[in-house]
Design goal:
three-stranded antiparallel sheet, N-reg_PII-like_a/b, DUF2007, 21% strand, alpha+beta, globular, 36% helix
């Protein structure tokens, strides 16, 4: 049976490069996550390979404490929210 997991935004990266680095660190620590483009970020990522519109980072609600710890270890300040990433 499929178990639904609530997504929580933990950080807004200023660009695609930082978002990808964060997702890599999360993944290497067993935390699946995804990013959502802000504004025209998706188009800018396609045309220029990077965007300065920002990227929101989401993880499952149960992974938030460990994800926040990892972000802080990277020198970043997490901003966990309770809103869904749908």
């Amino acid at each position: 049976m499929f178990m639904e997991r609530k997504a929580v935004k933990i950080y807004t990266a200023p660009d695609n490069l930082q978002a990808e680095m964060i997702l890599e660190v999360l993944g290497k620590n067993g935390i699946p996550g995804y990013k959502r483009d802000l504004g025209a970020a998706g188009i800018m990522n396609l045309y220029s390979g990077n965007s300065t519109f920002g990227e929101e980072i989401f993880v499952a609600e149960e992974d938030v404490p460990k994800a926040v710890e990892l972000l802080e270890g990277m020198g970043l300040e997490a901003e966990p929210e309770t809103s869904s990433g749908d």
